[in-house]
Amino acid sequence: MPPSERTARPDLAATLAYVLVALAVPSGEAAEWRLAGFTGVGLTEDSDLEIREPGRGTSLVFRDASFDDKSLELVSAPYLGWRLTRISERRPRIALALEVLHFKIFTETDRMVDIEGTFRGFPVDGPVAMDAFVQQYDVANGVNLVMLDVILRRPGLAGGRAELYAGLGAGPTIPYTKATVGGSGGDGHYELSELGGQLLAGALWQLSPRWDLFAELKLTRTTVDGTFDGGESEVDLTTRHATAGLGYRF
Questions:
Q1: d(CA 27, CA 208)
Q2: SS3 of 6, please?
Q3: Is 143 exposed, middle or buried (0-12, 13-18, 19+ CB in 10 A)?
Q4: Distance of alpha carbon 225 from alpha carbon 7, whole angstroms
Q5: Which of 37, 101, 40 has the alpha carbon at shortest distance from 241?
Q6: pLDDT tens, position by position, 181-212
């Protein structure tokens, strides 16, 4: 996808999100705000990975590449998320939220996969260890989804201390890719990529009038179009998440 097209769709999404938030927050309307932080794990399904180096005659498709998330390596690859939620007193069962979801993927390049395409101008076809051609492909500084969420709430359970909720969200993806192809390559940079989306469902327990504890399941879907030194990549990511965190009401 041309760079201009890559940036156009996320720019539009960000503009629409801004407009929707502005419309949803009328001046003077009473509301409760909630700021939450969370961590968790994200398991990404196998997916076709495309690697292209136009200047070197390389265009490869790796069928059903596998990914690790390393979410439990809290120092090197932490899974982090933040959400700012607005709950209107007039419509308390519907909330709007702005969410930032930061998770990572690390391709398991030592596995055998089916490959097709060209490498340095020579045709390639058949099962082979991925690292014979690509030694690294990671979105190691985060897939980074920035989403506007609409959340349906069922508060008032367990004497008013518990809440169930479910929702959906959409917004731009801002990945940072790293790749090593044929022994060369390197880091990319943060860049606007495709629109992403999520479904979510969770449960919340109020620890006090201000603080709460919550657990949540998510399903996210996005396409990462990334660039790195000398090349570009594309991969569709479908990820299942299990998260938990703390929220503060104000």
A1: 29
A2: helix
A3: buried
A4: 10
A5: 40
A6: 998 877 788 999 999 999 999 999 999 999 99
What's the DSSP call for residue 155? E
Query: What's the pLDDT score for residue 119?
Result: 95
What are phi and psi for residue 3, nearest 5 degrees? -55, -35
Q: What are phi and psi of 146, to 5 degrees?
A: -115, 110
pLDDT digit string (tens) for 14-35? 555 554 555 455 556 788 999 9
Mean pLDDT of all residues in 174-179:
94
User: What pLDDT does 247 receive?
Assistant: 98
Residue 94 near residue 151 (C-beta atoms within 8 A): yes
- Write the DSSP assignment of 21-82 as a string of letters: HHHHS-TT--EEEEEEEEEEEEEEPPEEEEEEEGGGTEEEEEEEE-EE--TT-TTTS--EEE
Among all chains, which residue has been given the structure tokens 């929707």? 20
Confidence (pTM): 0.87
Q: Give the count of alpha carbons within 13 A of 229, CB side only.
A: 11
Give the total number of structural domains in the chain: 1
Count CB atoms within 10 A of the CB of residue 124: 17
Which helix (H) or strand (E) is 243 found in, with range?
strand 231-249
- Domain at 120, CATH number: 2.40.160.20
Residue 221, sorted as left (phi over 0), alpha (psi -120 to 50) or beta, turns out to be beta
Domain limits for position 58: 3-23+32-249
